[in-house]
Amino acid sequence: MRGSYPTYGFGGTNIDGLWQAVDELRSRFEKRAGTRAGKGEVRAAVLALLAERPMHGYQIIREIEDRSGGSWKPSAGSVYPTLQLLADEGVISAEESNGRKIYSLTEAGREEVARDHPSAPWDAAGPHGGAEFMSLPKAGVELAQAAAQVNRTGSPEQVRQAVAVLEEARRRMYSILAQD
Questions:
Q1: Which is nearest to 74 in space by CA: 91, 87, 62, 89?
Q2: The CATH number fitting domain 41-125, selected from 1.20.58.460, 3.40.50.150, 3.40.630.30, 1.10.10.10
Q3: Does residue 29 or residue 72 have the better pLDDT?
Q4: Is the N end or the C end of the chain the one with fewer CB atoms within 10 Å?
């Protein structure tokens, strides 16, 4: 189906190249549930949350996802082994309640949080974390989809106008970075 579209517009490039660019943009920037964190970040996140209040494992996973703006959702396969390791180290304790293990910090855990983890991983995410970071790539994907639609169904004049809009947008994006 992709090969059935006309190849005019966007500098005469093949439509398959345009679709490939859209797909690459989408794959780079769409929300990735379960994105891998750096080494030690699961531990730091678990400790930061338990410093606030006792929680069970599923609550920890949900809280990390919420606080990272959906950009990081650790898997149960990373959270539960971390909880077990922390319990083995004596940093947290587990108590059974309503069929669930509720984890809380021990005194050693509170000391570790104060000493080694002064901020949570989502606080230090900087410009590449949280919901704000995801809004720009989402807008880029939506723009690429609109450009593809114009290329598929627009007249040659509409395609020419779309190219001019995109070239202006690219210049303006770079001018944003050039500002103080």
A1: 62
A2: 1.10.10.10
A3: 72
A4: C
